[in-house]
From TrEMBL:
This is Oxidoreductase. InterPro entries: 2Fe-2S-bd, 2Fe-2S-bd_dom_sf, 2Fe-2S_ferredoxin-like_sf, 2Fe-2S_ferredoxin-type, 2Fe2S_fd_BS, Beta-grasp_dom_sf, Diverse_Oxidoreductases. It comes from the Bacteria. Residues 3-79 form the 2Fe-2S ferredoxin-type domain. GO terms for molecular function: 2 iron, 2 sulfur cluster binding; metal ion binding; oxidoreductase activity. PROSITE patterns: 2FE2S_FER_1, 2FE2S_FER_2. The lineage of its organism: Bacteria, Pseudomonadati, Pseudomonadota, Betaproteobacteria, Burkholderiales. Keywords: 2Fe-2S, Iron, Iron-sulfur, Metal-binding, Oxidoreductase.
């Protein structure tokens, strides 16, 4: 049964009349029109649906809406704008890390979370942070290069 749920997404508070058991991904895409997070597997396995919840990368397809009430949710759309990209977004462009783009949302969100914890990650830390995000296009080396490029941009003072 629908109930009023307060949700803070990309810095804006939203009040929705939605069943709290509905997956966060469904609300983000269908009710709020945020299409950065993708529906991939629906099981929390592929990472295409990743968002940040209080700064931690999480799989939105397997988290019920009630689980994020009152918490800060950030989607790809909340990172930057077309005029002012987040350094991680710019780094993925600079290194040409995307091909089909389906995994890109998850890779970007995991990278943002990683760089918040480790501003200068080692290659091993980057691989560990991204290991559960599936990419079938084969841009793995470019994605790892993008992580290091983002670290460089952020340490040089590029605004997040």
């Amino acid at each position: 049964m629908p109930q009023a749920v307060e949700l803070r997404v990309n810095g804006r508070v939203q009040t929705l009349a939605v069943d709290g058991r509905v997956p966060l991904l469904q609300v983000l895409r269908n009710d709020l029109g945020l299409n950065g997070p993708k529906y991939g597997c629906g099981l929390g396995e592929c990472g295409a649906c990743a968002v940040l919840i209080d700064g931690v990368a999480a799989r939105s397809c397997s988290i019920p809406l009630d689980g994020v009430a009152g918490r800060a949710v950030t989607t790809l759309e909340g990172l930057g704008t077309a005029e002012r990209l987040h350094p991680v977004q710019q780094a993925f462009i600079d290194t040409q890390a995307a091909q089909c783009g389906y995994c890109l949302n998850g890779m970007l969100m995991a990278t943002v979370a990683l760089l918040q914890r480790h501003p200068r990650p080692t290659d091993a830390q980057a691989r560990t942070a991204l290991q559960h995000h599936l990419c079938r296009c084969g841009t793995h080396l470019e994605i790892l290069a993008a992580v290091q490029r983002a670290a460089d941009l952020m340490s040089a003072g590029a605004p997040p």
